[in-house]
């Protein structure tokens, strides 16, 4: 059972960080994961008053605040235009609308959950996360960082020519994924992200395989490389062997779809 | 014959109040200010409690009581809600020194709120002597490790139980010279199937409130299908007279058989009886998943003998059933795996054998779940028949048409009961047309590589337990000229309150609104075995019909006192009793008032009914799937079901029962998994891990009816509650086979299992 | 700590524990329509509107609703009745335990999208589990209700 002694709503990020540094403190995201934990919390820090619930275009970047909900990501026209609907595809399977109205951008990324659809997609978008006080960090670096007291405030996407495709395999519609796969072409740089391995998502650079463009042969060679490098495991949802088969299928399908897409931005 | 209220889509009496969220369930209508009861659960699948120290827990302010195995009565009982003497063994104590599965009760804690109770649970110190568990049910029989070695274990009925062999039940029955018939068959195949311990997963978890009534008795308000059995079970558990207990059920948030077993009741009952303070236990979803009463996991081996033309001549079914740590419903569920599957093929069957073993293991105890063993048996029998059709190159529909049971036939494997009302052949005809079997049964490969294919299965069930189930109805003419109908059956959302009122309204020729229904309360309601075994419409319904006749007769007698004429000169009508000679009318209101003044004739009658038969409903299910050969994923596109439940009493409710049952069946077929870790824990312990179908997972469902007329049922009705869960697993397995050439024999048929089978 | 919010149109000021969940807060305030069906945010039974958006009240700290507007089915009785009649006409309420969450989310859907397709209905309500009805009757009820609204609008 989650037990909370103090609930605080800081008015500045500095104040929030002061609380975050205290022992047994936790920053609240959508609370969906936190709520299930058997945990004693001294300070539960709610960022609701920090105006982090905005999706803004600033210069050549899109800034997504940590308190933006997954439902807002799903229904945001600009983001879905930019990603050819991949953002919607990455969150629409997550439980239900009421759940996605609570789950936040920050919570989904910060937790670096193995099952995360959101982390998989945003890694493919090659974005940055803004941490307080550390500053901006690339999301791929963040995925492997140790947990610190930093507060994640924003996710920042660069507005550069981007093609991205998101696919997942699930045993049943609104379940956790058995495997997630996002592939992107950003300024002719190819990246493939595989998540729910069941460990958290990893990125594989595909540039050297797709110099001659996306062909069946290049996909095959790339897939071979991915499968040899990628660590896949078993859990109650699927075995390692099944994940290997699925990885192959999703990578192929994602790249074939990527080939058909045109830049949406 | 055209009815006024039967075969009509009458709205459920409680529908609007349920939809508008009125407080009607246990936790809504009982005190929020009572002791909170929780149970400390064993982390081990098999262990003995060597020491248990509750002293610190007891000292927490707000903790009222902490109980261990040392504090409870030492007489064993069963929690299965069955007619006494129960076939299920007496193998339980409220708390035992031996814990037998991960989640078994170790201690009971009662306190003023959830927080203090949770704190207390954390600081109870238990020293376990951890024992090796029996987790593999195929190795449980005659294993050296005994789940119930205790001396005071007992079986009340001769079901072949033997606790020194881990046996809950064993039996064998047969007809004809099986080996000889097999020897003369063109094709004989044998296959083994495996089904899981699926959870009923009703939305309202188990919950019970208890208080002491003004007479010092234990008043139990519980979400239960079986108020009378519950009273007896609690009396056994607490070792107090039944007269000291009253059990009442409010609205129930779903049951599906789960609430045919006493699950949560014993704990708050014990707390309140000891402390004399009100208390409540609300099972968490996790508890409902790991410490309740799911379907029996079964391994069913079928041997089938047929001729090249598809004539099915011999069948041998052996079922191994996993009862888990306790024997609830173990000896009875298993019977249906053969007795409700083999008789489907009565037409040409010359010989059959059905045998079974039911074993104890250190898994979660099983219980009653819609279908009750028939579901498991039908998955096996229907699968092997389809596979035989494939081997013989015969359409799976054709092989069924050739062999299915017909009206008038004696079903040897169903206790020699005669199929007095059977429209199974019409169901198949109807389904074929509705589904367009001729075209959809062809396997089609789409442009994207996905495959469309179809499958078929049949099913039967019973209507009540023949010669056992008892239904009663008390019907009363009230002051204002309306009626009250008291029943002991439990409406768990199925709508039996409304269905029984429809029957009464039809008999009494009045509006359904004129019948007020009340059920169920052991102090008030007439005796009813309870709502299970698909019994309420068929058994209690007949009691209602008879009660109406009796009351009408009494009202005529009452009228004679005013009319001063012969009995044959009066007639009961919708308005009241009429003197046919004079056309005088005594209205219902006048009769009711007359009954309350200087009257010796009862205007309240109770009729009890039991049937020597359990007429089976029949059905056909057809499914179209789309299968992704690269991922193994199966999407349900279309499911057609045609059901023969006799006369359909309420067309809406029968349809929704069918749709609901089909979706549960689809869940069982494709998604709902129950696994055990090496330590004996179940990972599928929440709705996050145990995935029941959402509305995105069931495709399009179409349900229609082919009625027969059951002469022993009310208005010709049979049952519908359970049969509807039986066809999805075998029909989907059949469709997968037709798409891939592989038969999946282990449920659920996950994408992984399908892909691995394809790539084999 | 002190919480101030509007529950079904009524201003409430109360002293609550910081870890009280919104579901327990509204039930304590008499809104028994709000049900708990799971421990893992999966069932949708506890759906309430928080500042007009459907959320799972089992997963929100009551304090997070400080200053907000919370609506449960108790506060939408009149609005819910016509829809309820159409669901009841199918017999799709069944045991009723999932009904309040289903009703709340359906009303939220129709506010957001007054003319949803079958697929949009299914997607929006995917987080509302029902074990009794098999969902078809609920869908029929919603569609009949939409037809009724349309016909009423055309009159």
From TrEMBL, chain A:
<dbReference type="Pfam" id="PF00941">
    <property type="entry name" value="FAD_binding_5"/>
</dbReference>
<dbReference type="InterPro" id="IPR036318">
    <property type="entry name" value="FAD-bd_PCMH-like_sf"/>
</dbReference>
<dbReference type="InterPro" id="IPR016169">
    <property type="entry name" value="FAD-bd_PCMH_sub2"/>
</dbReference>
<protein>
    <submittedName>
        <fullName>Xanthine dehydrogenase</fullName>
    </submittedName>
</protein>
<keyword id="KW-0285">Flavoprotein</keyword>
<dbReference type="InterPro" id="IPR016166">
    <property type="entry name" value="FAD-bd_PCMH"/>
</dbReference>
<dbReference type="GO" id="GO:0071949">
    <property type="term" value="F:FAD binding"/>
</dbReference>
<feature type="domain" description="FAD-binding PCMH-type">
    <location>
        <begin position="1"/>
        <end position="162"/>
    </location>
</feature>
<dbReference type="InterPro" id="IPR002346">
    <property type="entry name" value="Mopterin_DH_FAD-bd"/>
</dbReference>
<dbReference type="InterPro" id="IPR036683">
    <property type="entry name" value="CO_DH_flav_C_dom_sf"/>
</dbReference>
<keyword id="KW-0560">Oxidoreductase</keyword>
<dbReference type="GO" id="GO:0016491">
    <property type="term" value="F:oxidoreductase activity"/>
</dbReference>
<dbReference type="InterPro" id="IPR051312">
    <property type="entry name" value="Diverse_Substr_Oxidored"/>
</dbReference>
TrEMBL record, chain B:
<dbReference type="Pfam" id="PF01315">
    <property type="entry name" value="Ald_Xan_dh_C"/>
</dbReference>
<dbReference type="Pfam" id="PF20256">
    <property type="entry name" value="MoCoBD_2"/>
</dbReference>
<dbReference type="InterPro" id="IPR000674">
    <property type="entry name" value="Ald_Oxase/Xan_DH_a/b"/>
</dbReference>
<dbReference type="InterPro" id="IPR037165">
    <property type="entry name" value="AldOxase/xan_DH_Mopterin-bd_sf"/>
</dbReference>
<dbReference type="Pfam" id="PF02738">
    <property type="entry name" value="MoCoBD_1"/>
</dbReference>
<feature type="domain" description="Aldehyde oxidase/xanthine dehydrogenase a/b hammerhead">
    <location>
        <begin position="20"/>
        <end position="132"/>
    </location>
</feature>
<dbReference type="GO" id="GO:0016491">
    <property type="term" value="F:oxidoreductase activity"/>
</dbReference>
<dbReference type="InterPro" id="IPR008274">
    <property type="entry name" value="AldOxase/xan_DH_MoCoBD1"/>
</dbReference>
<protein>
    <submittedName>
        <fullName>Aldehyde oxidase</fullName>
    </submittedName>
</protein>
<dbReference type="GO" id="GO:0005506">
    <property type="term" value="F:iron ion binding"/>
</dbReference>
<keyword id="KW-0500">Molybdenum</keyword>
<dbReference type="InterPro" id="IPR046867">
    <property type="entry name" value="AldOxase/xan_DH_MoCoBD2"/>
</dbReference>
<dbReference type="InterPro" id="IPR036856">
    <property type="entry name" value="Ald_Oxase/Xan_DH_a/b_sf"/>
</dbReference>
<keyword id="KW-0560">Oxidoreductase</keyword>
<dbReference type="InterPro" id="IPR016208">
    <property type="entry name" value="Ald_Oxase/xanthine_DH-like"/>
</dbReference>
Automatic annotation (TrEMBL), chain C:
<dbReference type="InterPro" id="IPR036884">
    <property type="entry name" value="2Fe-2S-bd_dom_sf"/>
</dbReference>
<dbReference type="Pfam" id="PF01799">
    <property type="entry name" value="Fer2_2"/>
</dbReference>
<dbReference type="InterPro" id="IPR012675">
    <property type="entry name" value="Beta-grasp_dom_sf"/>
</dbReference>
<keyword id="KW-0411">Iron-sulfur</keyword>
<dbReference type="Pfam" id="PF00111">
    <property type="entry name" value="Fer2"/>
</dbReference>
<keyword id="KW-0001">2Fe-2S</keyword>
<dbReference type="GO" id="GO:0046872">
    <property type="term" value="F:metal ion binding"/>
</dbReference>
<protein>
    <submittedName>
        <fullName>(2Fe-2S)-binding protein</fullName>
    </submittedName>
</protein>
<keyword id="KW-0408">Iron</keyword>
<dbReference type="GO" id="GO:0051537">
    <property type="term" value="F:2 iron, 2 sulfur cluster binding"/>
</dbReference>
<feature type="domain" description="2Fe-2S ferredoxin-type">
    <location>
        <begin position="1"/>
        <end position="76"/>
    </location>
</feature>
<dbReference type="InterPro" id="IPR001041">
    <property type="entry name" value="2Fe-2S_ferredoxin-type"/>
</dbReference>
<dbReference type="InterPro" id="IPR036010">
    <property type="entry name" value="2Fe-2S_ferredoxin-like_sf"/>
</dbReference>
<keyword id="KW-0560">Oxidoreductase</keyword>
<dbReference type="InterPro" id="IPR002888">
    <property type="entry name" value="2Fe-2S-bd"/>
</dbReference>
């Amino acid at each position: 059972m989650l037990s909370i002694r103090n609930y605080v709503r800081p008015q500045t990020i500095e104040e929030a960080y002061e609380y975050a540094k205290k022992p047994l403190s936790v920053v609240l995201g959508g609370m969906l994961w936190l709520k299930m934990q058997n945990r004693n919390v001294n300070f539960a820090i709610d960022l609701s008053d920090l105006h982090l619930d905005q999706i803004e275009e600033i210069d050549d970047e899109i800034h997504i605040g940590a308190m933006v909900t997954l439902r807002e990501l799903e229904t945001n026209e600009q983001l879905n235009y930019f990603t050819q609907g991949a953002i919607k595809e990455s969150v629409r399977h997550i439980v239900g609308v009421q759940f996605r109205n609570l789950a936040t951008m920050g919570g989904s990324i910060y937790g670096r959950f193995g099952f995360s659809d959101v982390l998989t997609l945003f890694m493919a978008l090659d974005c940055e996360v803004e941490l307080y006080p550390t500053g901006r960090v690339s999301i791929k670096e963040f995925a492997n960082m140790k947990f610190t007291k930093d507060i994640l405030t924003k996710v920042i996407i660069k507005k550069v020519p981007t093609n991205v495709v998101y696919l997942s395999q699930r045993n049943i519609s609104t379940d956790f994924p058995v495997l997630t796969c996002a592939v992107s072409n950003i300024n002719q740089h190819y990246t493939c992200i595989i998540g729910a391995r069941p460990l958290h998502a990893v990125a594989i650079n595909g540039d050297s395989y797709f110099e001659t463009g996306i062909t069946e042969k290049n996909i095959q060679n790339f897939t071979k490389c991915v499968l040899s490098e990628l660590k896949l495991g078993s859990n109650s949802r699927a075995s390692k062997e099944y994940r290997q088969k699925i990885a192959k299928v999703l990578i192929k399908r994602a790249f074939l779809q990527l080939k058909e897409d045109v830049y949406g931005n | 014959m055209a009815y006024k209220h039967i075969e009509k889509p009458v709205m459920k009496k409680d529908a609007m109040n349920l939809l508008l969220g009125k407080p009607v369930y246990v936790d809504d209508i009982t005190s929020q200010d009572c002791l909170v009861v929780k149970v400390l659960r064993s982390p081990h699948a098999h262990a003995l409690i060597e020491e248990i120290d509750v002293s610190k827990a007891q000292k927490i302010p707000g903790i009222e009581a902490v109980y261990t195995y040392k504090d409870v009565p030492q007489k064993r009982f069963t929690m299965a809600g069955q007619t006494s003497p129960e076939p299920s063994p007496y193998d339980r104590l409220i708390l035992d020194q031996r814990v037998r599965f991960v989640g078994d009760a170790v201690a009971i804690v009662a306190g003023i709120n959830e927080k203090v109770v949770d704190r207390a649970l954390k600081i109870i110190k238990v020293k376990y002597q951890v024992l090796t568990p029996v987790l593999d049910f195929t190795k449980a029989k005659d294993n050296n490790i005994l789940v119930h070695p205790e001396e005071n274990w007992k079986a009340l009925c001769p079901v072949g139980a033997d606790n020194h062999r881990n046996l809950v039940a064993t039996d064998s029955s047969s007809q004809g010279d099986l080996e000889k018939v097999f020897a003369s068959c063109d094709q004989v195949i044998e296959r083994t199937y495996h089904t899981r311990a699926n959870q009923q997963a009703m939305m309202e978890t188990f919950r019970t409130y208890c208080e002491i009534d003004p007479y010092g008795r234990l008043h139990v308000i519980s979400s239960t299908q079986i108020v009378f059995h519950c009273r007896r079970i609690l009396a056994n558990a607490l070792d107090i007279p039944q007269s000291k207990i009253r059990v009442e059920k409010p609205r129930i948030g779903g049951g599906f058989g789960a609430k045919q077993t006493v699950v949560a009741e014993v704990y708050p009952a014990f707390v309140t009886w000891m402390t004399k303070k009100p208390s409540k236990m609300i099972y968490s979803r996790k508890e409902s998943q790991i410490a309740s009463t799911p379907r029996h996991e079964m391994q069913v081996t079928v041997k089938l003998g047929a001729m090249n033309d598809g004539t099915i001549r011999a069948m041998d079914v052996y079922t191994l059933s996993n009862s888990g740590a306790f024997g609830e419903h173990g000896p009875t569920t298993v019977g249906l795996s053969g007795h409700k599957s083999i008789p489907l093929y009565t037409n040409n069957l010359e010989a059959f054998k059905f045998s079974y073993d039911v074993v104890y293991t250190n898994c979660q105890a099983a219980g009653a779940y819609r279908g009750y063993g028939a579901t498991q048996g039908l998955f096996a029998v229907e699968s092997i028949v389809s596979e035989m059709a494939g081997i013989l190159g015969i359409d799976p529909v054709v092989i069924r048409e050739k062999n299915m049971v017909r009206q008038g036939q004696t079903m040897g494997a169903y206790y020699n009961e005669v199929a007095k009302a059977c429209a199974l052949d019409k169901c198949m005809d109807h389904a074929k047309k509705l589904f367009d079997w001729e075209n959809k049964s062809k396997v089609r490969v789409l442009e994207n590589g996905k495959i469309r294919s179809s499958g078929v299965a049949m099913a039967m069930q019973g209507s009540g337990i023949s010669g056992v189930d008892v239904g009663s109805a008390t019907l009363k003419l009230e002051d204002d000229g309306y009626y009250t109908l008291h029943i002991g059956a439990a409406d768990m959302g199925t709508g039996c309150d409304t269905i029984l009122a429809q029957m009464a309204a039809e008999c009494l020729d009045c509006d359904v609104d004129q019948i007020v229904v009340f059920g169920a309360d052991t102090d008030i309601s007439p005796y009813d075995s309870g709502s299970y075994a698909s019994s309420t419409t068929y058994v209690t319904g007949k009691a209602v019909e008879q009660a109406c006749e009796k009351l009408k007769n009494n009202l005529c007698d009452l009228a004679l006192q005013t009319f001063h004429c012969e009995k044959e000169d009066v007639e009961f009508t919708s308005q009241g009793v009429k003197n046919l000679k004079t056309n005088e009318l005594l209205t219902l209101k006048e009769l009711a008032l007359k009954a309350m003044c200087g009257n010796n004739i009862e205007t309240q009658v109770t009729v009890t009914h039991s049937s020597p038969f359990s007429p089976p409903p029949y059905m056909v299910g057809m499914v179209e799937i789309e299968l992704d050969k690269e991922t193994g994923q199966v999407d349900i596109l279309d499911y057609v079901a045609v059901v023969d439940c006799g006369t359909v009493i309420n067309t809406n409710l029968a349809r929704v029962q069918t749709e609901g049952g089909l979706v549960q069946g689809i869940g069982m077929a494709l998604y709902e998994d129950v696994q055990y870790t090496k330590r004996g824990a179940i990972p599928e312990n929440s709705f996050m891990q145990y995935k029941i179908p959402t509305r995105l997972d069931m495709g399009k469902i179409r349900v229609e009816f082919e009625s027969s007329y059951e002469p022993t049922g009310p208005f010709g009705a049979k049952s519908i509650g359970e049969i509807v869960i039986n066809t999805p697993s075998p029909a989907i397995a059949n469709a997968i086979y037709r798409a891939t050439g592989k038969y999946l024999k282990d449920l659920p048929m996950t994408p992984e299992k399908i892909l691995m089978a394809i790539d084999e | 700590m002190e919480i101030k919010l509007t529950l079904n149109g009524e201003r409430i000021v109360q002293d609550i524990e910081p870890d009280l969940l919104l579901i327990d807060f509204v039930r304590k305030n008499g809104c028994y329509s709000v049900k708990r069906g799971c421990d893992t945010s999966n069932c949708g039974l506890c759906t309430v509107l928080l500042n007009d958006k459907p959320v799972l009240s089992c997963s929100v700290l009551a304090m997070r609703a400080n200053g907000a507007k919370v609506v449960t089915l108790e506060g939408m009785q009149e609005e819910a009745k016509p829809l309820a009649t159409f669901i009841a006409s199918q017999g799709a309420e069944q045991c009723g335990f999932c009904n309040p969450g289903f009703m709340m989310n359906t009303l939220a859907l129709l506010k957001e999208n007054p003319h949803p397709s079958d697929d949009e209905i299914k997607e929006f309500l995917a987080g509302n589990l029902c074990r009794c009805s098999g969902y078809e009757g609920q869908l029929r009820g919603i569609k009949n209700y939409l037809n009724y609204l349309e016909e009423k609008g055309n009159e």
